[in-house]
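Pipeline run #58 for the internal structure catalog. This entry was flagged by the ingest filter as a single-chain record with no existing model, so it goes straight to prediction. Upstream metadata was stripped on purpose; only the residue string is passed forward. Reviewer on rotation: M.T. Logging verbosity set to normal.
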Amino acid sequence: MKCYVFKPTDGRARMATDDETGAKLPKRRTGGWIREGDVEIVPGTGTFNGASSDDVIAGIQRDGYYLWLDPEPVAPVRVSASDKKVM
């Protein structure tokens, strides 16, 4: 199953979903979701972030997404005008 991984603009959550737009992800009170990449999850082949691939696929099919926490918190990134460079 091809899945798309999203991360929040703040926080530690990660979401995998079969919807590349992220429309199936829950709404956040603050910030939003940023697409981080994609992954192929194959049934019966082992684990995905500590859960069996079968459980992850079942969760995506049932809820529209699978949630896990990243061990490292994601700090919000702020870009100031002085950080912008013209190439």
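catalog note: The chain has one domain: 2-72.
catalog note: The CA atoms of residues 68 and 81 lie 34 Å apart.
status: ready for reviewer M.T.
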